[in-house]
Amino acid sequence: MSVLEVRDLSIRFGGLQALSDLSLDVNEYEIVGLIGPNGAGKTTAFNCITGFYTPNSGTVKYRGQDVTKAPPHVKARMGFGRTFQNVGMVKSATALENLKTAQHAKAPYDVASGLFGFGKTWQGEREMTERADAILDLLGLQHIRDQRVGGQSYGTLKLLELGCALATDPDVLLLDEPTSGMGPEESDELGERLLLLRKEFALTMLVIEHHVPLVLRVCDHVYVLNFGRLLAEGTPAEVQQHPEVVAAYLGGEAPEALAATVEPEQDLAAEAEVEPAPEPRKAPRKAAARKAAPRKKAAAEKETS
Amino acid sequence: MAVLEATQTRALPRTMLGWVPRLAVMAGLAYLLLVRMPLDEKFAPIYADAAIYAIVGLSLNIVLGYTGQLSLGHNGFFGIGAFSAAYALTVREVPFALTFVIAGACGALFALVMGVVALRITGLYLALITLVFGITLENSLFEVSWLTNSGAGQPANRPEWLYSDTRFFYFCLAFLAVAVYLDFMLLRTKSGRALLALKENERVAEAFGINVTAFKLLAFVLSGTLAGVAGALFAYRIGIVTASGLGFNLALLFVLLTVVGGLGSRVGVMLGGLLFASLDYVLHETWAHHVNDFVFRWDSAPQFAVGFLGALGLLLTIVKYPGGIGQQIRPITRWLAGGPFTLHDDRDSGPAAVEGSSVRA
Predict the structure, then answer these.
(1) B109 touches A at CB < 8 Å
(2) Which residue in A178, A225, A268, B260 is deepest, having the highest Cβ count within 10 Å?
(3) Class assignment of domain B44-355?
(4) What is the per-residue pLDDT across A78-136, written as a single tens digit (0 to 9) for each?
(5) What is d(CA A124, CA A111) in angstroms, rounded to the nearest whole number?
(6) Out of B186, B189, B203, closest to residue A52 by CB
(7) Chain B interface test: which of A90, A99, A168, A303 (most B C-beta within 10 Å)
(8) Predicted TM-score of the model (pTM)
(9) How far from the centroid of its chain's Cα atoms is residue B82's Cα?
(10) Average pLDDT, whole number, for chain A?
(11) Do B208 and A104 touch (CB under 8 A)?
């Protein structure tokens, strides 16, 4: 049974059709990749699925239930855990406090008894601290437990953010570029970690990712977006060979570039992120022009912070 | 900064031994405050005012410090508390204890309305709307004849056992203790974390499953309740409630004592309350006894001085010490709470933390 069923999702921002007729399925215990050039609408799709945007048309079904119009906090309670592209955490709070904030919906006491200190308040707080510590241990972040989140390195923040998403006790985890700010080795490590987490918590995941080796390693199924449209889908290997996908990333059919994508070291997807102007590129010049257009769209599109 | 860091003392280990000096200092402070304080019928009203201001400060701190919304209309909630308590006691002859519940409920109700507005409007415009709210209440509801005893003022007489001002001060202190406890619990439990999260980033708060709308309203309702109860205490403190004392000046005083006291700092806000409650008296005394007699005569000078010192304090707080008094005393309060004694402060809150305000260094 599919955990997430997205059908014909469309959303416009003014004159910009950010998503048109996007359909995708995420099945139980699957890790599904969502890839595409900058400004393709990946984060917009995430925002529609998690309730931050209300799509103009289309439906989002979670385990058979229509949740298209449910607000984000309700979806979070249902079991949608998500991370943000630019790290979504409470920056002035410590790592531990963040992990406890993320457990908000699962706190074993209600607001009123918490305010007066009745009932299971303190016991509940202890349980939440224990769970936060367990997550810190799991991610190897125990050393920043009582440090403010604001001063940490980007890679650490991304990892801790993943921890916060886990702390919400999710059923389906939506990760927006979990490896941004990480080196290749850290990224590989994260891939292993995602597989481990899936096993441990029986998670289903939808991942926006640019790091090709990671996509190849962990994803069961990949959807490719370009200009708000679904360009291709299939297993990572299939998608990688898909001529239109290669064209979308490089602009034009270049057989040698296609061969290059097969090599894990050649991170073409990440290269697509680099500013086209200064350095010499393997791709033909018109590719730069084509990529410049979506970048403008990326600026127009309100990305999450 | 380097000098500050060099003078930092080493962190005390958190053992039983470490608590001995802390408890000694705490006992000393308690002795000074409770035993050696010049508390008699003359000073008690000032202390009662200080306690009442401190409750309002804590109330405003919830909205201003925890959710970052500037309310210039807290005189409204305060006044509603005062009038409803006086009206309930004198006209409706409700039992004394119940008037506080009524005052709190009325404050909460009006704050809820304000909270609904605050859901849509934030920052400077919300400040303006709250300002108008306070002024409008002062000129409308607080002038209604059945509430104000035809404009003569609604009497609010304390029961016999509270006639003594000293006793009334302890009575106010008990309310302050409850307010401090509520504030403490708020910060230590999921509600406080939710407020901090939504102040910093609403989207993140939502992703964590926090109902942002509900918690914004909760902050206003809690704040309104505390302000309403403080208003009731104020009614009994002065004995007769009129609109004249509940104008915009009062709202300004509340914001001043909260910000100068230190946003987000419980002890700081309470000290701010004490400062502004006693400033008037202290200035009048010193002026009358020292300046007027020996230098030159200017009887209204203290009134100007209060405003001047308040403005100066606000300016200093905003530009130099965004954490107010609370920031200044944090090394001590942190040490007393069992932390290390360091002068370095890594937490900054303050006016800069209020939405839409900024200070250039």
Answers:
(1) no
(2) B260
(3) mainly alpha
(4) 999 999 988 889 888 899 999 999 999 988 888 888 888 888 889 999 999 999 999 99
(5) 12
(6) B203
(7) A90
(8) 0.82
(9) 16
(10) 82
(11) yes
